[in-house]
């Protein structure tokens, strides 16, 4: 991908913008893009820095692995420099612990904003927090060597970085439970077959495939895409009849806009 002056480049996260496309890159391949609270805060900051021109956000990672998940240093007594260790957090009050986890989640929540479409380009291992970061995006394009796994349950924890809702929505409750409870790997073939991935390609074609998908999304008028995304996001919480009403209202807005007629 082309290189542009970054709007953000810190703590293993780089944000660049090329007009309507923003690219968020995980930049610590030496540690397989292992994640930390500092990285999560940088991800949240990247979302806050997006210019209004951006319509599509690409998430990618340098190196052979998308992300090996949480940096195990978090579980040591020392933790990370300037950060409370997870052991220290466990000793805090329920309210303080809840607030800390809520802050961590902020790096995962903005990817499904109604005004953008996000695409994760995923290669190699996407484990635990890495899997959840890929799930945070609207769409996933994967390399044929991808290996998804949700390992939190195997470690005595639960997935808590917003990944459970999209996982169940994509593959259903039973398969999601089996994936989380066993911690097994999900291959590119299974990811595409079950809806976790839109496209699976050879690893050397991953960036181009993600860019091609971004270009296809940009071909649609922005307001129509925003309305369509909102319609689809709301399906789970609506009845069939409610969805019919929502479709009519959205189409009415689009027709008036196209015709130049005000509300």
Name a few traits of the molecule.
263 residues, alpha/beta, 7-stranded mixed β-sheet, 3-stranded mixed β-sheet, 10 strands, globular
Q: Overall mean pLDDT score?
A: 95
Helical segment tally? 10
Which consecutive residue ranges, at least 5 long each, have pLDDT under 50? none
Element-by-element helix/strand order: EEEHEHHEEHEEHHEHEHHH
Terminal CA distance reads 42 Å
Q: Could you explain how this protein is built, in words?
A:
The chain is an alpha/beta fold. It contains ten helices and ten strands. The chain has helices at residues 37-49, 86-90, 94-109, 129-136, 164-171, 173-182, 188-194, 206-218, 222-233, 240-259; strands at residues 8-10, 13-18, 21-26, 56-61, 117-122, 125-127, 139-143, 147-149, 186-187, 199-201. The strands form two sheets. It has a seven-stranded mixed β-sheet with strand order 1-2-3-4-5-7-10, sandwiched between helices. A three-stranded mixed β-sheet has the order 6-8-9. A hairpin with a 2-residue loop joins strand 1 and strand 2. Helix 1 (37-49) crosses helix 3 (94-109), helix 5 packs across helix 6 and helix 9 runs antiparallel to helix 10 (240-259). The protein is globular and about 65 Å long. The N and C termini lie far apart (42 Å). The mean pLDDT is 95.
């Amino acid at each position: 991908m082309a290189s542009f002056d970054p709007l953000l480049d810190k703590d293993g996260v780089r944000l660049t913008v090329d007009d309507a496309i923003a690219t968020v890159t995980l930049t610590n391949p030496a540690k397989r893009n292992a994640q930390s609270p500092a990285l999560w805060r940088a991800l949240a900051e990247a979302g806050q820095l997006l210019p209004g021109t951006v319509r599509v956000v690409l998430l990618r990672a340098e190196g052979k692995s998308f992300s090996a998940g949480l940096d195990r240093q978090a579980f040591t007594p020392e933790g990370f420099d300037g950060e409370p260790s997870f052991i220290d957090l466990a000793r805090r009050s329920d309210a303080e612990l809840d607030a800390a986890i809520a802050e961590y989640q902020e790096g995962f929540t903005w990817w499904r904003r109604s005004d953008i479409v996000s695409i994760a380009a995923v290669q190699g291992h996407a484990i635990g927090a890495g899997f959840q970061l890929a799930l945070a995006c609207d769409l996933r394009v994967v390399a044929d060597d991808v290996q998804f796994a949700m390992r939190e349950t195997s470690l005595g924890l639960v997935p808590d970085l917003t990944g459970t809702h999209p996982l169940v929505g994509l593959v259903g409750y039973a398969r999601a439970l089996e994936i989380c409870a066993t911690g097994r790997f999900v291959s590119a073939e299974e990811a595409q077959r079950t809806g976790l991935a839109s496209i699976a390609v050879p690893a050397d074609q991953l960036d181009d495939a993600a860019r091609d998908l971004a270009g296809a999304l940009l071909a649609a008028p922005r307001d129509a895409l925003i309305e369509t995304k909102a319609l689809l996001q709301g399906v789970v919480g609506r009845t069939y009849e409610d969805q019919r009403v929502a479709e009519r209202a959205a189409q009415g807005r689009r027709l008036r806009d196209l015709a130049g007629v005000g509300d």
